[in-house]
Write a structure and sequence with these properties.
Elements: E1 2-6, H1 10-22, E2 26-30, H2 33-40, E3 47-51, H3 59-68, E4 75-79, H4 84-92, E5 97-100, H5 105-121, E6 125-128, E7 131-134, E8 139-142, H6 152-163, H7 171-177, H8 189-205, E9 210-213, E10 217-220
Parallel strand pairs: 1-2, 1-3, 3-4, 4-5
Antiparallel strand pairs: 6-7, 7-8, 9-10
Helix pairs in contact: 2-3, 6-8
């Protein structure tokens, strides 16, 4: 595993990193919240360990920012706070688990493995016909190995089509579930994105996966 340890107390961070290395994992240390955010922008971690109280940006705030960015990487919060409300705040901020200081490495390591297992059992990949979507890397490729380069919204649109394969999806549904809009915009952004996605899929696969049902919407089928 690639592990981020964001902890400003070196007497805690350094032994943790050493223990993880001894277990065969790679660990990086950030001494404050700002440094943690900078590392997160560059490196894809498997697990993130955050100290609740850190200089510059707290672990609590880092946790919230991670989730606001749509990153679902497992997070374990370290805290010296024992109040139940603080632990509830941690979970509400998006942490998968927390551990109260002082703690043993064996207990922390068991919790890290547990949240990683829970994360792994969630679907990381969606497949339809010969198309594979990696939901973590947000990449798309055919079983032949050919990659399909999609924009963020094209990826989200294809994901929604696959999750609702065989169903006719109208513009209102797509605007609500892909763009997060509570209304149907007057622009043709939805139609243009569908058209571009259909074209890219057809160019790479030779198949017309997305069909228009005039007056009703669109449907994903294997032609």
């Amino acid at each position: 595993m690639e592990i981020l340890i964001a902890e400003d107390e070196h007497q805690i961070a350094d032994p943790l990193r050493k223990h993880f290395l001894e277990e065969g994992h790679h660990a990086m240390v950030a001494s404050d919240g700002q440094q943690a955010l900078e590392l997160l922008a560059k490196v894809q971690f498997d697990v993130i360990i955050l100290d609740w109280k850190m200089p510059k940006v707290s672990g609590f705030e880092v946790c919230k920012k991670i989730r606001e960015n749509g990153d679902q990487t497992p997070i374990l919060l370290l805290t010296a706070l024992t109040d139940v409300s603080n632990k509830i705040d941690a979970l509400n901020a998006g942490a998968d688990d927390y551990i109260t200081k002082p703690f043993s490495f064996d207990e922390l390591y068991a919790r890290v493995k547990a949240i990683k297992r829970r994360f792994n059992v969630e679907r990381e990949v969606l497949e339809y016909d010969n198309i594979t979507l990696n939901l973590i890397k947000r990449s798309v490729e055919l079983h032949s190995g050919n990659a399909i380069n999609l924009t963020e919204k094209e990826f989200d649109l294809l994901k929604y089509f696959i999750l609702n394969k065989g169903s006719i999806l109208d513009k209102e549904q797509l605007c609500k579930n892909v763009w997060g809009l509570g209304f149907t915009p007057k622009t043709n952004i939805c139609e243009v994105t569908v058209k571009n996605l259909r074209k890219k899929l057809e160019e790479i696969s030779g198949k017309k996966y997305i069909n228009t049902i005039y007056g009703e919407g669109y449907i994903l089928i294997d032609d």
